[in-house]
Structures are given as structure tokens and as C-alpha cells.
Design goal:
The protein is α+β, with helices and mostly antiparallel strands. It has 11 helices and 29 strands. A hairpin with a 5-residue loop joins β3 and β4. 39% of the residues are buried.
């Protein structure tokens, strides 16, 4: 390597993913670091998209010299629905912060986040948050971590940890210092002479501005006049913004940027490359068609023709939301229902979205953080198609679950409730008989249907009209009770026969 080439390879800022259980303070931590407030803008107080931010931190090195270092943060959703998004964030990042509440300790999504970090094989730091709360118990949180195999420094492991308060800012600077120390050990490098490459972390469609994508640059430089290629899509680098929305003309590794002007909505998670000419970008796409993520209708694999198909249309604000919604809804399939995602896309629910699915009354048209056009409502009313818009994923999945339960075909099945042996026949009038018997299993009740068995073979059915015990009327007779009964049946019951009471239930 020449000295000129070496000059281009320099230290790059670390890309940090912040992960953990919902409500454990991930976004609050980033808010404090950035001195901004994004939590209030998120429905339900939770982050539902991946966001990327750059911050500058004054870092004191071992020699005592203070320098300013740049750090890029990815804020990932904590709810289970966004597990795929969390995994993608961890795969893009150089390092992770696992946030654990000092009040709640390790929770389900804490372990999901930890497993995603392990799978991506990146170093991480544990931030024990909410130490300012009255119910905070740092020792309990530490014990939870150890019990779940997360061995921190001083407790049998080498994973750094810092008790912090994201709300007050206590020890947040210490956390950032440790992040930069660990990143230095990783010796992260980037080459400024190379064309930029990285990953798509979000896609958005604006009716006025067009298709834009949020990208994380993992290496190289991008500047105006170049072309970005990802999947089947190309964008000229003309409108480029940094994480704050400021227009820029160039960017380098570790930077989150937004580029507007893609020919098609890029698939989230795909790698991107940049080229000096459109021709080179087109050639790259032609050679890498296999990288394009195909529509996955995994919910209809092994489809049984006997199943009822529920067509679902999803429109959302960004592709990341669609991914998460499909992930959750796919869990609702059962042995009677087949879910088919017939159409998904970014933007408002339009007339065509409803028209394209026809007049299937089982169709569900779902919107997430989008509007419904007036004509779409009119067509839906005509077709009796249900349209519902949400801004919180929990409510969306609950609604879909309720709709699926409502339209799921019910199977009728018999449940045996009691068995009795016929001891004596008292009288018979037309289709009614007075018999005496003893309950061997379960309970017999008036108004219940019975099967009549002779030598264990069913010969007919009837209904218990009346029950008596010692000439007193009763509503039911349980095991061991000898009873008299009036039974309505077209079959003549004989001594030694058995009757089995049963009920029809729908499942």
C-alpha cells in the first residue's frame, strides 16, 4: 500500500445501535445525548421506526488530552413486532448499547435484543438505566443480567456496564467515554478514496417529493453528481440531507444520510453502492439481481385449499412499518385461516388499493400512520370492505386478531358430558319413555341430548325431558346417582342399554 493510499484510510466514527426492552429508556437516552425530544412525536410513547443520528462527544483520552469525537447512533424499536428491524440495526452497527431498567431488570425483549447482538457478533456495553427512580435496584438488575448469562465486568465477565439516568443525564458522559474506548480497541477504519457503500435502513414515499431512503454509509465517500444503486432502484445524488434534514453535497463513512429521487422504493436492509455514472449503476443492478428481496408470502406456504383466505392490504408511512406489521399479522394464521398479503405499499389508502382486491368481504385494508382518500372510503362501502387506520401497532394487531376470529369458520364437535346404564323400563307412550338408570360417568342434565347405545353400538338419539331422584324432580344427576327419567326418542330403549349425554360446541 502506497503512502497516498494509507493517507486515505483513517479512523471512522463508530455506529452504535441502542437496544433493549420497550419503555426501558432507549429513546430517552438518545434524547439526552442529542438534547432534543423525539419521544413525544411517537404514538404511544414508543419508537416505531429506525432513526439515525450523529453526535459529538468531548472525549478525554488516557494521556489527559481532550478531543471531540463523532458517534453515530441508531435508535431501534423495542417492541417484539420490530424484531427484524432490531436485528437489521445490530447487523449494520459496529457496537451496541443494551439498555436495562434498574426498576424492571431483564425482560423478554431485553433477551431478544441481547440475542440479536450476539448473532451480529459486535461488542456491547450495558447501560443500567433509571437509577434516579425510587424503585431502582441496581443490584437486582445486575443479578438478572448474570442469571441470564450476561456476565458484566466484576461479576465473572468482561462486558462493560454503567448505571445511568437518561432522564437526569447522570453518568451518560461516562457511558459515551466507554463507547469511544471500546471503539478505539476495534480500530475502525474507512477509506475516503472509495465510493460510498452501506445499507438502507428506511424508505419513505412522499407524494410531492418522491421516493427517499435513509442510508448508513459504512465506508467511502458520496457526493453530488454520483448515482446510488440498491436492489432494482437507482437514484441520482442531487437531493442529499444529513440526519437533521440539512442539505449537504457530500458525506463520508458512518454518516446517516437521506437521498431523494429513487426510481423505485428500495428494500430495507439491502446494501447500496455508489457510482460515478448512471451507466455503471445500471450495470451493477443488472449483475446483482439476486440481492433483491422478494415478496414473502410465507403465511400462504403449504396452503390448504380447505382454508379460508383472508386478503390483506397494508399501507404505511414507511417500508419498515410494513415489514413489522406483516411480521405480527403472519402470527395470526391458524389451521382454518390463510392470510394473504395481496398488496403493500407506502402512502395513503387510495381508490385503487380497494378496487384491486375486488369485492371479497373478508378483505382487510389496513393503514398505519397514513390517511384514507375519500374515494377509497366510498369504494370500500360499496364492496363492504373494511378499512381501518392505526398509529399504534398493538391496537392494529388486536383489531386484525379480532377480525380473524370473527370470520374463522367454526367447527362443531360433540362433547360427552355423562354416561348412564339403563336398569329398568317403566312405561312407553308413543315416542316418550319412562326409564330408571344409574350414572356411571359425568353428569346428566335435563334438556340434554343423548345417544342410545346397545352392546356399545349407537342405535339412535333422544332428549332428556325430565329427571327424578326418589320421586323428587331434579335438574341433574351426577356419578353414582340412581334416577328416573323421561326420554323423548323414536327408538325403544331396553334394559341394559346405555345413554350418553352430549353437547355440541363450536371451536
Amino acid at each position: 500500500m502506497s503512502k497516498r493510499e494509507e493517507k486515505n484510510i483513517i479512523e471512522r466514527p463508530p455506529i452504535i445501535v441502542v437496544m433493549g426492552h420497550v419503555d426501558h429508556g432507549k429513546s430517552t437516552l438518545l434524547d439526552y445525548i442529542r438534547k432534543t425530544n423525539i419521544v413525544a412525536s411517537e404514538a404511544g410513547g414508543i419508537t416505531q421506526h429506525i432513526s439515525a443520528y450523529e453526535v459529538n462527544h468531548t472525549f478525554q483520552q488516557v494521556q489527559g488530552k481532550k478531543i471531540e469525537k463523532k458517534i453515530t447512533f441508531l435508535d431501534t424499536p423495542g417492541h417484539e413486532a420490530f424484531s427484524a428491524m432490531r436485528s437489521r440495526g445490530a447487523n449494520v452497527a459496529d457496537m451496541a448499547i443494551l439498555v436495562v431498567s434498574a426498576e424492571d431488570g431483564v425482560k423478554t425483549q431485553t433477551m431478544e435484543a441481547y440475542n440479536a447482538i450476539k448473532k451480529s457478533d459486535v461488542p456491547f456495553v450495558v447501560a443500567i438505566n433509571k437509577i434516579d427512580r425510587p424503585q431502582a435496584n441496581i443490584n437486582k438488575a445486575i443479578s438478572d443480567l448474570i442469571e441470564n448469562g450476561i456476565y458484566i465486568e466484576g461479576y465473572g465477565g468482561d462486558i462493560p456496564y454503567v448505571p445511568i439516568s437518561a432522564k437526569t443525564g447522570e453518568s451518560v458522559d461516562k457511558l459515551l467515554d466507554i463507547i469511544l474506548l471500546v471503539s478505539q480497541m476495534e480500530e475502525l477504519k474507512g477509506d475516503t478514496s472509495k465510493n460510498a457503500e452501506g445499507f438502507v435502513i428506511e424508505t419513505n414515499v412522499d407524494p410531492k417529493k418522491g421516493i427517499s431512503a435513509t442510508l448508513i454509509i459504512t465506508n467511502g465517500k458520496i457526493k453530488n453528481g454520483m448515482h446510488v444503486a440498491v436492489g432494482k432502484s437507482i437514484a441520482p445524488v442531487r437531493i442529499m440531507e444529513d440526519f437533521s434534514g440539512k442539505k449537504i453535497t457530500e458525506a463520508v463513512f458512518s454518516s446517516p444520510i437521506r437521498i431523494t429521487g429513487f426510481s423505485k422504493a428500495p428494500e430495507i436492509g439491502l446494501p447500496f453502492k455508489t457510482f460515478e455514472s448512471k451507466k455503471d449503476a445500471e450495470q451493477y443492478i443488472a449483475e446483482h439481481k439476486g440481492l433483491v428481496c422478494k415478496e414473502n408470502n410465507s403465511s400462504i406456504q403449504n396452503q390448504n385449499l380447505d382454508k379460508m383466505v383472508v386478503p390483506i392490504v397494508i399501507k404505511a408511512d414507511v417500508l419498515g412499518s410494513i415489514e413489522a406489521i406483516k411480521h405480527e399479522i403472519s402470527k395470526l394464521t391458524n389451521d382454518k385461516i390463510c392470510i394473504r398479503f395481496v398488496q403493500t405499499g407506502v402512502g395513503s389508502i387510495s381508490e385503487n388499493d380497494v378496487k384491486n382486491v375486488g369485492n371479497d368481504k373478508n378483505t382487510l385494508v389496513i393503514g398505519f400512520n397514513v390517511l384514507v382518500e375519500n374515494l377509497a372510503n366510498q369504494i370500500a362501502e360499496k364492496f363492504e370492505t373494511k378499512i381501518k387506520v392505526f398509529n399504534i401497532i398493538y391496537e392494529l394487531t388486536d383489531w386484525v386478531k379480532g377480525e380473524i376470529e370473527r370470520i374463522t369458520p367454526k367447527t362443531k364437535t360433540e362433547e360427552i358430558t355423562g354416561v348412564a346404564k339403563i336398569i329398568r323400563i317403566f312405561s312407553k307412550t308413543r315416542d316418550k319413555q319412562i326409564i330408571g338408570g344409574r350414572v356411571d360417568e359425568g353428569t346428566l342434565k335435563i334438556k340434554e341430548s343423548v345417544k342410545i347405545l346397545r352392546r356399545d353400538e349407537e342405535i339412535g338419539t333422544g332428549i332428556i325431558l325430565e329427571l327424578q331422584q326418589q320421586r323428587a324432580e331434579i335438574k341433574e344427576a351426577s356419578v353414582g346417582v340412581e334416577f328416573g327419567a323421561k326420554i323423548e326418542s323414536k327408538i325403544t330403549i331396553a334394559q341394559g342399554d346405555k345413554i350418553k349425554s352430549f353437547s355440541i360446541i363450536e371451536i
